[in-house]
TrEMBL record, chain B:
This is Branched-chain amino acid ABC transporter permease. Keywords: Amino-acid transport, Cell inner membrane, Cell membrane, Membrane, Transmembrane, Transmembrane helix, Transport. The lineage of its organism: Bacteria, Bacillati, Actinomycetota, Coriobacteriia, Coriobacteriales. It is a multi-pass membrane protein. Coiled coil: none annotated. Pfam families: BPD_transp_2. It comes from Kribbibacterium absianum.
UniProtKB/TrEMBL annotation, chain C:
This is Branched-chain amino acid ABC transporter permease. Coiled coil: none annotated. PANTHER family: HIGH-AFFINITY BRANCHED-CHAIN AMINO ACID TRANSPORT PROTEIN BRAE (PTHR30482:SF10), HIGH-AFFINITY BRANCHED-CHAIN AMINO ACID TRANSPORT SYSTEM PERMEASE (PTHR30482). It comes from the Bacteria. InterPro entries: ABC_transp_permease, LivM-like. The chain crosses the membrane at residues 24-42, 54-73, 79-100, 107-130, 198-219, 249-266, 286-311, 323-346. Keywords: Cell membrane, Membrane, Transmembrane, Transmembrane helix. It is found in: Cell membrane. The keyword Transmembrane applies. The keyword Cell membrane applies. It is a multi-pass membrane protein.
């Protein structure tokens, strides 16, 4: 498969060319995938999808007709996320512009780019912290326009934050319990009057919280105040809390920031494990290239609010435009 | 003609609110605190002026000067003793301390001057009221002086904050005290200066207010303080033109409400207007909305 | 990570200690206070002035607890809490007058009045809360203050009477009520008049316990955690699917209902109540109790409200100086711990105390 490079100046044209290429297909094999993908995309037929088993590492990435790549195994399902021409302006400045991205149902995708490229802004658009100025976001094929942040959480988008946002005066377990807010609901009166529903639900909440904490081996610190945890543990707790909401798509904003190499390696394992166990998609922003290249199947590179490259880790690593974006134009010339 | 009279009275009352609101807004802008004791500084200013005029029998100008100097010193003292140790404290702690200072000033005044109202002599001497349209429109000298003083103060403050070194330091401190300190600005001095200016303005407001509404008791400053605070929020707290606009509008609304709807509902209407404005424009008329960065 | 132990592994003695430092202890303090006072009344070792303070103490403790739900648990500064008390007080007083003949049993009538006060408090809480919840921080504070003043101003102009035909309302004067042979219940600035005193210390204590029960149980439930999550981090709370407005409003309305109940109890303790009794000074007074007791600490609110309601009375021998001393104490309590020299001294004293070598578990986990 050829590296999916684009010239930002003629981006739309290249997109079309790429889509065209995907449609006509360079090999017969690809043609079949594309046709299947288009079919699966048109009418989500869960019956035809293969039973999701343990995900194979280094799955083959295949292009979709609508400009994007997904792991081969996700071809039969509606992509969990599809952004079409997404854009937002901040007082005349196009902070994000013509952002197109498809994330497969069980894909681990990466969003990278230099500082200030607009990566976190994309997350804020995906979670509707900001309302997009243009474009659409489809979540599992469903248009999310008009939804707010809380609604999107209920629809299955969970996130962590670059600057950690825990409920710091509450315990680790309470943080996870709050993540389970919509998973185990009971009303205010049940709580105040301690009705049977309260006891049943609280018991369930405790069990579920402990199960989730166990994913990151954090049951031992369940009663510690979240603000008193070490930095790395706070980042892990944010992931657990996000998982508690029962997401289809987990957005991780620099999950490895401030972690040492061994913690990062452990985190990589855990992200994979989360994807395999929960069968969800992960989209992560990260500056640690070892992590990104190590676990991401598809990567999108953002610069000045625009996607300058999409592809597999190998393709991105060899892409001259990406190198230029990170290191400046001199570096490409020398290379 | 009634309309015009009410309008002028409203602007005059609003000018007093505006001068008090300026003190509120400057202190809030720089120290991010609601200085609930500000209204009581007005009352102290009133009593100082009253003492110099009545007990010492001095010239009104000296009375005003004494009030301004006294309140400025009082403002600096309050800031140094009560607020400075609380720079890093939660805003509620500072708020309660300000309430404590307010109680303290009121009760000190009660001990010194007693609960009986003092009849304040007007500091605006000389000519009588101006008559226009065959005496149908009567404008008192107090009204004119109040409006002029307010306008002068606003222009001076805008120039001060935009042109002078100290004014720029104030703006820097209100934006980001940490960065201002790194730039070599003495944040403590700057905050003290802001309190000094705010308290000096409160003294002027006190003297003007007492000249127009001459009944002086220890709780005199309380309600105008609340109204001026409302005015500052109304105009967009932290903004100098906003405080003046908010103050004048509040004064006009109050006078008109009294004249056309009924005295007893005036306060309710003033506060209702504030609520409506804040619901439509949550940062006040001229305030800036700063969203939280995610 | 010192507290890694699970509940089962904690020794019984520590668990008992934790229970006493936690919610159970707070209930016990109230009950103990009640028993001691009752014993003192039985032994006639209590002044009549202090006895007159008993119901107000309960009222202010309940009011402080409910305000702490807004300020401490929900993290919103409300300066109009007394407004909801006045709504409760006036609706309770009106009902009491209407039910005078229908419900002869004073205890039952008081209960009905308190419930009505709570309902009206909740209604006004919702009326005020819906617009107010669009704001936050100091803007929310000023708008709650404004609403409190509006409520006071409207009550100052409210005239209510009842006769055989039912209730009559007017906003101008008593004559416009159009009654021939009725009773005036609310008479403008003179407030609610002709109230039969039916509030008792027992009822007050029960109200405090009820308020504690509601607030503490709410805090330790799904809704309470959602409220605290919004307080700690609004954006993160939204991101985990919490309806921020709903839970901020919930805290506000529950607090308003509880304040309304306290207000009704207050009104039933006097023969008349004026609207200006519940102005912003009262709101601030309750806020002072909350802050001095410790924001988010319900036990602190109980103790601070009780002591500070009694304090001005106990200082009465100092006559004119008592409010001055009150002010100085207030400033000192706020400022002194923030002066480094004093703070380090306090830390040393604290460390020397034997009980601090154990646990510092705070109730509800609030700040």
């Amino acid at each position: 498969m050829s590296p999916t490079t684009q010239n930002p100046d003629s981006e739309k044209k290249t997109y079309r060319a790429q889509a065209e290429r995907a449609k006509t297909g360079e090999t017969s094999e690809k043609k079949t995938y594309a046709a299947q993908a288009a079919k699966a995309h048109d009418k989500d037929a869960p019956g035809t999808a293969p039973v999701a088993g343990p995900v194979d590492k280094g799955a083959r990435m295949v292009p979709l007709p609508s400009d994007g790549i997904v792991p081969e195994r996700d071809l039969y399902s509606t992509p969990v996320l599809e952004c079409r021409h997404l854009g937002i302006d901040f007082g005349g400045l196009h902070a994000v512009e013509d952002f197109n991205l498809i994330v497969g149902k069980t894909e681990i995708a990466g969003l990278i780019g230099p500082n200030g490229a607009g990566k976190t802004t994309v997350f804020n658009l995906l979670t509707k912290v900001y309302q997009p100025t243009r474009g659409t976001i489809l979540l599992d094929g469903k248009d999310t326009s008009g939804m707010n942040t809380a609604r999107l959480s209920r629809e299955g988008v969970a996130r962590t934050f670059q600057n950690i946002r825990l409920f710091s005066s509450m315990t680790v377990e309470e943080n996870v319990t709050i993540g389970l807010h919509n998973a185990v609901p009971y009303g205010m009166w049940s709580g105040i009057l301690r009705l049977p529903k309260y006891w049943v639900s609280e018991h369930k909440l405790h069990e579920r919280a402990m199960e989730l904490l166990d994913v990151f081996d954090m049951t031992g610190v369940a009663n510690v105040e979240a603000g008193n945890l070490p930095y790395g543990a706070q980042r892990r707790l944010e992931i657990v809390r996000a998982l508690a909401t029962g997401p289809k798509l987990l957005l991780l904003d620099e999950p490895a920031a401030g972690m040492n190499p061994s913690e990062t390696a452990e985190l990589m394992e855990n992200i994979r494990k989360i994807r395999d166990d929960f069968q969800i998609a992960v989209l992560l922003i990260e500056h640690d290239m070892d992590l990104v290249m190590g676990i991401c199947e598809g990567i999108a590179v953002l610069n000045y609010g625009k996607i300058i490259a999409k592809g597999t880790p190998a393709e991105i690593q060899g892409n001259p435009q990406v190198i230029e974006a990170y290191l400046g134009s001199d570096a490409t010339k020398e290379a | 003609m009634d309309f015009l009279t009410n309008l002028i009275n409203g602007i005059s009352l609003g000018s007093i609110y505006a001068i008090i609101a300026l003190g509120y807004t400057m202190v809030y802008g720089i120290a991010k605190m609601l200085n609930f004791a500000h209204g009581d500084v007005i009352m102290v200013g009133g009593y100082i002026c009253f003492m110099t005029l009545n007990a010492l029998g001095l010239n009104p100008l000296i009375g005003i000067l004494a009030a301004v100097v006294g309140c400025t010193l009082l403002g600096i003292c309050i800031e140094r003793i009560a607020y400075k140790p609380l720079r890093q404290s939660p805003s509620l702690t500072v708020l309660i301390t300000a309430i404590g200072v307010s109680y303290l000033l009121q009760n000190l005044a009660l001990l010194i001057w007693g609960a009986n109202p003092k009849v304040f002599p007007s500091v605006v001497g000389g000519s009588g009221p101006i008559m226009l349209f065959d005496g149908q429109l009567v404008i008192s000298m107090e009204t004119i002086v109040t409006i002029v003083v307010c306008a002068v103060i606003m222009v001076a403050l805008v120039l001060f904050t935009s042109k002078t070194k100290m004014g720029k330091a104030m703006r820097a401190c209100s934006e980001d005290p940490g960065a201002a300190r790194l730039m070599g600005i003495n944040v403590d001095t700057t905050i003290s200066t802001t309190f000094a200016i705010g308290s000096g303005l409160a003294a002027i407001a006190g003297v003007l207010m007492m000249s127009a509404y001459p009944s002086l008791v220890p709780t005199t400053g309380s309600m105008p303080g609340i109204k001026a605070f409302t005015a500052a929020v109304f105009g967009g707290i932290g903004s100098i033109p906003g405080a003046v606009l908010g103050g004048v509008l509040l004064g006009i609304i109050e006078v008109f409400a009294k004249a056309y709807i009924g005295t007893q509902f005036a306060d309710a209407i003033v506060f209702a207007v504030l609520i409506v404005v804040l619901l439509i424009k949550p940062s006040g008329l001229l305030g800036k909305y700063v969203p939280e960065k995610v | 990570m010192a507290k890694e132990t699970t509940a089962a592994a904690v020794p019984t003695k520590d668990r008992l200690l934790k229970a006493l430092t936690g919610n159970l202890g707070t209930y016990l303090i109230v009950v103990a206070f009640f028993v001691i006072i009752e014993a003192m009344i039985a032994g006639k070792s209590i002044t009549s002035a202090f006895q007159g303070q008993l119901v107000p103490i309960c009222v202010y403790v309940s009011a402080a607890l409910s305000l702490n739900l807004v300020v401490g648990v929900s993290g919103e500064l409300s300066l109009g809490h007394a407004g909801f008390m006045s709504v409760g007080a006036f609706s309770g007083a009106i009902l009491s007058s209407v039910l005078m003949d229908a419900v002869p049993d004073p205890a039952l009538r008081l209960l009905l009045c308190i419930i009505t006060g709570g309902i009206f408090g909740a209604i006004f809480g919702a009326i005020v809360g819906v617009p107010v919840m669009r704001l936050s921080g100091d803007y929310l504070a000023i708008v709650t203050l404004a609403f409190g003043e509006i409520i006071k101003n409207l009550l100052n102009n409210l005239y209510v009477g009842h006769d055989a035909a039912g209730l009559h309302f007017s906003m101008t004067d008593t004559t416009s009520l159009g009654m021939t042979n009725g009773t005036v219940v609310v008479n403008g600035p003179q407030g609610a008049v002709g109230i039969t005193k039916i509030s008792t210390f027992v009822a007050g204590t029960l109200l405090v316990l009820f308020t504690l029960f509601v607030v503490l149980n709410l805090m330790k439930s799904r809704s309470g955690r959602a409220i605290m999550a919004v307080r700690d981090n609004k954006i993160a709370a939204e991101a985990v699917g919490i309806n921020v407005t709903k839970y901020r409003l919930m805290a506000f309305v529950v607090a308003a209902a509880l304040a309304g109940m306290a207000g009704a109890l207050y009104a039933m303790n006097f023969s008349s109540v004026v609207p200006s009794r519940f102005d912003y000074n009262t709101s601030i007074l309750i806020l002072v109790y909350v802050v001095l007791g410790g924001i988010g600490s319900m036990r602190g609110s109980v103790i601070a409200a009780a002591i500070l309601t009694v304090l001005p009375e106990t200082l009465r021998f100092m006559a004119d100086y008592r409010m001055l001393i009150y002010a100085v104490v207030l400033i000192a309590v706020m400022v002194l711990p923030n002066i480094p020299a004093v703070a380090s001294l306090m830390e040393k004293v604290k460390e020397a105390m034997p009980w601090n070598k154990r646990t510092t578990a705070e109730e509800g986990g609030a700040q």
